[in-house]
Here is the input.
Amino acid sequence: MTSADSPLRGRVAVITGAARGLGAELARQLAARGARPALLGLEPAELAGVARSCGPDAAWWEVDVTDAMALEAAAAGVLQRFGRVDVVVANAGIAVSGPLLLSDPDAFDRVIEVNLVGSVRTARAFLPHLVAGRGYLLQIASLAAMAPVPTASAYCASKAGVEAFAHALRAEVAHHGVAVGVAYLSWTDTDLVRGTDALPGLRRSRARLPYPLGRTYPVGPSVARLVAGIERRSPHVYGQPWVRAVPWLRGAIPSVIARTVGDHAADAEERVRRHGPVSTMPVGPGGAADSAASRRLPGLPR
Here is the structure.
């Protein structure tokens, strides 16, 4: 499908977490289909660069998705700039790695705050505009919502939470003509995943997951499938084709993972004892940006 044929042509697409990784690639591919991207994130220089790569119809706002007032202001700014909101992609997210027993409590809680509460606040800020335009909300979840792994309990819980939230919201807003989708991706080659892999021992543990659970997938084709799902206003979107089979197996997956990588928990505890709580802080450049933002906002973990 070309941009001339795409139902996204001329539509306004809001993407949170758009400064890098999945969000940045989504913005570029949506722009290539003729959409006008509104980029939300924490890193002004990165956001400006992504906006330039999307063309003259893109704009950006520096926003922390845990800040409800900032999101409301951004929503008003998007409406003033573009006059409408057709698509919202709740993509912003961070991750930490480490056993709950030894993890930094504030960092652990911050993952829930950004990934789950931030998604709820994003939906609340933009939903009136989606109702006005009978739009589409895509919630980025993860394979982790269905296949929880040890030492990633905060991330897995947050993604299971946004999955349930989006499913419930879909039924709430259907009579307004608003469609809601959930996107599931396995390990995708982004800064977040690279940051996770940089932690001692975690890449080795992930390599022991049964194929294809442990493989890292290129971001371009994965995002192309998300864009196709947005064009169709799909209720479920899969970044990798095989992930669509996982819901049928989700009852058995935790037992399989416990048998194959359960001993990783002991290795992770040793890693934290050796490297200290810093090894359980948010990973990658995006995690660092969020940590800096949380220190600037009153009432958030420091």
Observations:
- Residues 298-302 have pLDDT under 50 and may be disordered.
